Amino acid sequence: MRSVKFTLLPPPEVLKNDVECIRVAESSGEEGLAIHVAPTGVPGIVFHQHNGQPVLDEIATASGRSVRPSILFLYGPGTDASVMRYNGGSFTTTQVIFRPHALRTLMGMNASVLANGSAALSDIVPTNLLSQLLDARTERERLQLLTAFLVERFRQGNTRDALVEESLRLIHRHIATVRVKDLLDHVSLSERQFERRFIQTVGLSPHVYIRLRRFNEAIRLIKTGRYERLTDVAHALNFYDQSHLIRDIKAFSGATPRSLWHRVGDFHDEQAGYSFVS
Fold it and tell me: Which of 4, 20, 185, 217 has the maximal Cβ count within 10 Å?
């Protein structure tokens, strides 16, 4: 089976509040390649090429959508499992994984515009970054160009929503127990006001985002090997019952719990989310 080497890199210090990490994927071989990706609900940027040509042929989602992405594209928060199909031959992709709020803080945009979607980066913000990346001779130069672009975006000082960012920290810190009601009590906003601001900043509703993050936490717990039954995972994450966890596994992975359980050992376990190669 063709393999892919993933390298995770930390963002520059100035970007740590807005960028989770940078992932470089390198592969060589003649046959095509598919990477199956579990949704994380966070946005990012992808640059994919070999000798200046695009290598990511298609992104197909479990709900039936299919796109052929630009060579440098911005993607929004997704809720669908997807398959990234690559052409045969060698390739390198560089992916900047944002934090959930970064479409607003770095791109200055309403995140809901790109929910479950993508666009050429130049369609969102005026930039000649693509030509610079294609002219670069090494991966190191490309990384420098990408980070310099994001630092410049950061320095433009787009508006931040401190309450939404604080609510995101609470979700991540207390993912097994947090409810939307807990967030409302903390931020002292009406449900309607809070949901509107959360969707503008994150692109998803608070309820959907919590479900999605809890699904990812379920994958992490299954991967530890410490749980013998799905019921135990559901209990650890305070699901009402096992059927609610089964519903979310089917909704977000497009797979049955049994097939996910048997496949989870193949998942790459990293900050960038969960994925496996076929």
Answer: 20
